[in-house]
Amino acid sequence: MKKNLLLICSVVFCLMSTTIKAQQILKRTCGTMDHLAMQESKDPNLAARMQAIETQTAQFIQNQRNANLSSTPIITIPVVFHVVYKTAGQNISDAKCIAQLNQLNLDYAKLNTDTNTVPAVFRGLAADTKIQFCLAQRDPSGNATTGIIHKSTTVTSFGSDDKVKSSTTGGDNAWPATSYLNLWVCNLGNNLLGYAQFPGGGAAATDGVVLLYSSVGGMVSPGTSSPYNLGRTATHEVGHWLNLRHIWGDANCGNDQVADTPPAKTSNYGCKTFPYRSTGCNTTTNGEMFMNYMDYTDDACMQMFTAGQATRMAALFSAGGSRVALLNSLGCQPPASGGGSFSFNNVASTNVACGTSTATSNLVSSASGGFTTPITLTASGAPAGSNVTFSANPLTPGNTSTVTLTNMGSLAPGTYNITITGTATGSANQTATVSFVVNPGVSPVITTQPSNVNVCTGSNVTFTSATSTANVNYQWMVSTDGGANFTNIQNANTPTYSISNVANSINSYKYKVVMTTPCGLSTSNIATLTVNELEVLLTATPENVALVPGRTVMLKASVIPSANYNLVWRKDGSVISSNNNLDSLLVYVDQIGTYTVEAIDPNGFCSRVSDPITLTDSVSGRIFIFPNPTSKNGNFTVSYYNKLAPNKINKQTVSIFESHGARVFEKTFDVNGGYSRLNISVPNLSTGAYIVVLRDGYGNKLGAGTLFVTH
User: Fold this and answer.
1) Whole-angstrom Cα distance, residue 378 to residue 399?
2) Which of 68, 95, 157, 270 is deepest in the core (most CB within 10 A)?
3) Which residue among the candidates 54, 237, 288, 598 is catalytic per the annotation?
């Protein structure tokens, strides 16, 4: 199973790039990313629409996990062929279009004659998609049609720029995408075999599929672009139009968002031999599903959709699906005969509270004289920033369409009249007025008030507010005179207001926020900013000293102002509890590290940490004895740099000999790190000179020195 990762590279137009020579298509390729970049540059909202469709699809798939696909009703989609031609050869016959339609129906119903060639291990995954296609029998005006339009053009060839979809650029205009699948058949240049527009991927005027004329046909009546002449180009591209991705997910071992298609490294060409396993994808024993309609193999080697792909397509026609409007299309039904007309009911006003974002009203149609022609609805008079949508458009006479006014949260109280116009062939246009009355509401409800803040100079401050009311505008204000007067703060228009690097000059300033909606305004509590001056300095005497045994550094903390602040010392981030609240610290060679001191005011409102000072030791190969001379009590220290393994525990042995060579003392110590102080106590030594010898844990002599004992 593939990871559920949205690949934006395969959610917009997908085209097949080909090389045409003597009507022979040499190889399928895909130019999705170039086309995606072009679409995104024109439409910054494209990614959000595609993500919304993916979210709805994922929820539908989750809900359908235990559903029985065989009981799903068949969805029939009206199709209109736009045959745009310059030469007689490009003007394919109606019979060829019908052959293509028949091949689509066979492939999408799993009734294709070559379905038995699907390998046995995949045969159980092959599915009837429950999607079928019909030639349109009525046009958008309600008139009878064959569903096939032949239109001459002066354009030699078209590209992937959608010019074939507009009569102004030599093509033919689309029929409404909510009622028809538009199939444009033309001569494609730039080595294109075909491309499709994904649901949500573009404007309604460009929605549909474009096919190279020589690829159109079926297994019974092939086209001329062998080996892509059996109608599978249309099967593949309509799959994209129904939100299917390429089998390899348009990335190296990518994700096509379908659980029952095995991973594929990349596109496959020609006719592979089962099982086919490319390297790098950890494919299963059965290998890749190269016979899937969404791969790039030859037409003769494409034979199946999976149940997962069928469920993904079905999501488009469920509640909230982006192609659900096609279920209401009358395109497959011939127009009604006879006269008659339609009318609208009188619509009662809809009352909503101020701040409401969406309101609905029902528009009911009635018919006389057996009138059944679909009614196309348009709206005018919507207030700026709001939009009108219909639950059914076109509307079948005798039925109801819900009129929804959206994005109305910013509307002030008042009455807003929307004029609905209905247009249908064979009847005069009819209008109805839908009124939405916005009633005065309550002021914003503040749920979080800004709080007083105590900080140090140089700190960052944030005041926070919140409201349970939607569509609120914020304006933060400041008073510099103790609250007598407030002025607006420029660009402070969010629920929070932040100040960086606070200066003592704004001590005691007061802040509040005013929240406004079309329904009223509310003002928050006043919060006071208290700024405490505090600076802490850490100095070392002497400076820049690398310590050796017998040498120390005095660290001293200075606080400005010199109030009664608490001091906390830290070495390497850990608190030195024994020195807290002392303003100085004496550091020996075995206490090297990074030191800081923190000053905290007695009320806990303000604290400041000094810049760090790092003390190091100085490597020396000699033995240190100090103090030397020492008194007769024999208390002194021996130290030596543990340079062989400074980060490991080692042994060092101290031996003391009198002038005649007699040993008067010996002790072994554990040493760790660089310098360690080996404290020696040999009381009651006689006055004189003694030899001190230091050896490592193996008995090797590290050094020796003379100790003088005085009275």
Assistant:
1) 16
2) 157
3) 237
pLDDT of 20: 35
Q: What percent of the chain has pLDDT over 70?
A: 91
Half-sphere exposure of 570 (CA within 13 A, CB side): 13
Helix 46-63 vs helix 307-314: angle between axes, to the nearest 10 degrees? 120
Residue 305 has what pLDDT? 97
Neighbouring CB atoms inside 10 A of 578's CB total 8
- The segment(s) of the chain belonging to CATH 3.40.390.10 are 8-327
Q: Which residue has the tokens 């029902």?
A: 362
Ranges for all domains in the chain classified under CATH 2.60.40.10? 341-439, 446-530, 535-617
Question: Which residue from 77, 136, 81, 87 is spatially nearest to 108, judged by alpha carbons?
Answer: 77
Fold classification of 341-439 (topology level): Immunoglobulin-like (2.60.40)
Q: Residue 230: what residue type?
A: L
Q: Which architecture characterizes domain 446-530 according to CATH? A: Sandwich (2.60)
Q: Spell out, as residue ranges, where the chain has pLDDT lower than 70.
A: 1-37, 66-71, 282-283, 336-340, 369, 604, 643-649
What pLDDT sits at residue 500? 94
**DSSP of 21-86, one letter per residue?**
ETTEE---EE-HHHHHHHHHHH-TTHHHHHHHHHHHHHHHHHHTTT--GGGSPPEEEEEEEEEEES
Q: Residue 635 — φ and ψ, nearest 5°? A: -95, 115
State the CATH class of domain 8-327.
Answer: alpha beta
167 DSSP 8-state letter: G
Tokens of 378: 């348009």
Say what the pLDDT of residue 633 is.
80
| CB-based contact 511:477 (threshold 8 Å) | yes
Strand order in the sheet with 584-587: 535-541, 553-560, 584-587
DSSP lists the bridge partners of residue 415 as: 437
* From-to residues of CATH 2.60.40.1930 in the chain: 624-710
Beta carbons of 539 and 556 less than 8 angstroms apart:
yes
* Choices 1.25.40.10, 2.60.40.1930, 2.170.270.10, 2.10.77.10: CATH for 624-710: 2.60.40.1930
Tell me, yes or no, if 543 is annotated catalytic: no
The CA dihedral of 24, 29, 30, 34, to the nearest 10 degrees, is -90
Strands 131-135 and 75-85: parallel
Written as one string, the DSSP assignment of 510-531 is EEEEEEEETTEEEEPPPEEEEE
Query: Under CATH, which number does the domain 535-617 receive?
Result: 2.60.40.10
pLDDT of residue 195: 93
Task: Give the length of the chain.
Answer: 711
